[in-house]
Amino acid sequence: MNKPADCYLDVPAGKAVFVEGEQGQVMYVIESGAIDLLHSARGEDPVVALGAGEFFGEMAMFEDQPRPFSAIAREPARLLRIERSAFADLLRQNVEIALKLMHVISRRHQRSEYRLSSILADSANARRKPASVPAPTASAPPAAKPVAAKEAPKPAAPRDPGIEPAPAPVQAAAAKTAGSCVLRHAQGEIFPLDPARTEFLVGRPDPVAGINPEINLSGVDPTRSLSRRHAKLVRQGRLYFVREDAATVNGTFVNNVRVTTGVDVPIKPGDKLRFGAVEVDFAAA
Fold this sequence. Notes:
The protein has helices at 84-93, 95-128, 168-175, and strands at 8-11, 16-18, 26-38, 48-50, 55-56, 70-83, 181-185, 190-193, 199-203, 215-216, 229-236, 239-243, 252-254, 257-258, 265-267, 272-275, 278-284. By secondary structure, the chain is an alpha+beta fold. Helix 1 crosses helix 2 (95-128). The N and C termini lie far apart (55 Å). 20% of the residues are buried.
């Protein structure tokens, strides 16, 4: 399909396509050249380097959020511009584009989760490692007995800035949960949450798109009210949260209160969760 000339953007080497913090209404597909995505926290070290056939800025198609990265041409690049207003028509005309977009977003999300898990693991190991104390030398006089001092408070574990800490009552109730929980449906179906995992996708499978949720509720959803990627249950230590990553048609509810998309809502044993028309009890195993 031929594209009009004004759909393309030619960017010289070193020039920014957009900068971190800008509002976006356009995504880009790289026809030729190379683009680096940079984050201010990493300076000039690219977060990812992209080449011909890859795309970037796709989150602007789904929500009004500031650009999380700056996009800089590493070498002269020719880009295909896709406006948000034309995005839905493009997906209807070419299903393969939609599937590729979902695959790339999923892959990038998995990479981000892996980096975050590594950071949290390194931080936990650093806190557990005892500080080394140099042995006294033979010529050195005996050290004076130190004056007792209050132990300095331990630094808080790094936390996703987008997640607010759970209120104290929720933490107290969740502390009783040893990390092993289940979802119970009124028909008797039980959906266990593997304590070795930290995220559980809730939805229904889609072999074409490669979606296979850890919590498949399609068997108790005769009206097909669930989205394929409806929501997630997220475990942080002993605490559990419900997160709706993308707005769903039939919504996600905790104790009959609809959750806000993108916000982690704390849950505890005894809470009732509803995904579309499917209601389950969150309980300790």
